[in-house]
Write a structure and sequence with these properties.
CATH architecture: Up-down Bundle
Number of helices: 5
Distance between the termini: 20 Å
CATH class: Mainly Alpha
Number of strands: 0
Radius of gyration: 17 Å
Order of helices and strands: HHHHH
Strand content: under 5%
Number of domains: 1
Length: 143
């Protein structure tokens, strides 16, 4: 089960990064061109939100059931080892912050009365979420 979840987490990461890039670009262009925020854009922003939350949930399951769970009682060792600290502390905390940014972006965007402001709010916060994700993906352990 762990191997399946780890592979799913990896595949969803790729899908999420592509979807975020596409959404941020599209929303920025739509804001610039003052296009209306319609049903498709609402569904697109919702898909990003749902996928980020699913990805977080899978990641937390992996963290608490995988090989790193044994280190929760040895935080001194974790903090002294940069690789363990990255995998057990930095990556999960940063990803939680990224999901929070995406969630705030959708919520703030939906509350905007002006469509251009909706696009701008979502593009900004989705961009922050994407940046946080990219800087803390364990790129070196993929492959």
């Amino acid at each position: 089960m762990y191997a399946f979840l780890k592979q799913t987490h990896y595949v969803l990461m790729i899908i999420l990064l592509v979807l975020l890039l596409f959404t941020i670009f599209r929303f920025a262009v739509n804001a610039n061109q003052k296009k209306p925020f319609g049903a498709f854009e609402d569904k697109q922003s919702l898909a990003v939100l749902i996928l980020t939350h699913i990805q977080l949930l899978i990641g937390l399951i992996l963290l608490f059931t995988g090989p790193w769970a044994q280190y929760f009682s040895q935080m001194g060792e974790v903090m002294g080892n940069s690789d363990l600290r990255f995998k057990i502390i930095e990556h999960p905390v940063t990803m939680i912050l990224a999901v929070v940014a995406v969630t705030i972006g959708r919520a703030r965007g939906k509350r905007q009365a002006d469509d251009t402001a909706k696009f701008k709010q979502m593009a900004l916060f989705y961009g922050i979420g994407l940046l946080l994700m990219v800087i803390r993906i364990p790129w070196s352990s993929m492959g």
